[in-house]
Amino acid sequence: MQYSKKVLNRFMNPKNQGKMQNPDGFGTVGNPRCGDIMTVYIKVKKFKKEDIISDIKFETLGCAAAIATSSMVTEIAKGKSLDEAFKITRQDVADELEGLPPLKMHCSNLAEGALKRAIEDYRSKAGSKGKAPKKTAKTTAPRKKKK
Fold first, then answer.
1. Which of 6, 14, 47, 103 is most buried, with most CB under 10 Å away?
2. What is the count of structural domains for the chain?
3. What pLDDT, in 10s, does the model give residues 107-142?
């Protein structure tokens, strides 16, 4: 399986990796067939009446492509409005990585899904109306336990 230099770079040197303390929203997705699990955390700030992703991090258990797509989706989304970030597609992620092998395109589905889950989580907490994320992969978002 041949990976682009950009995929290998993001795998070896991922950006925005790690758990975020007190995120405004988070989304977790997984693929039971390959075992990849991704969580994306976002911090949101108001700027000119618009919700902007001011910080974003990820945690991923998975292959090189899973880590690279997680890293790339955070780079694409950071600084964007929630509406702009919600429009990021699996193809956008793959294109920014200069392509993915066909057998690894599902990783870009997971990255897109985790980001959309995080945005939807934020919107549900903030009470704003937003589109429900498209289900591009089997997704699960853990529920917070009530104290």
1. 14
2. 1
3. 888 899 999 999 999 999 988 544 444 443 444 444
Assess if residue 58 is contained within a domain.
yes
Residue 76: inside a domain, yes or no? yes
Q: Is 39 helix (H, G, I), strand (E, B) or coil?
A: strand
37-47 and 50-61 as β-strands: parallel, antiparallel, unpaired? antiparallel
136 in a structural domain: no
pTM: 0.82
- Check residue 62 and report its DSSP letter: S
Residue 48's domain is classified under what CATH number? 3.90.1010.10
pLDDT for res 126:
85
- Scored b (16 or more CB within 10 A) or e, 20-53 reads beebbbbbbbbbeebebbbbbbbbbeeeeeebbb
Q: Identify the domain containing residue 103 by its residue range.
A: 5-126
Candidates 33, 93, 92; CA nearest to 67 is 93
Look at the block and give the residue holding tokens 């990820």.
58
Q: What residues act catalytically?
A: 34, 107
Only one residue has tokens 């075992």, namely 35
- What stretch of H or E contains 55? strand 50-61
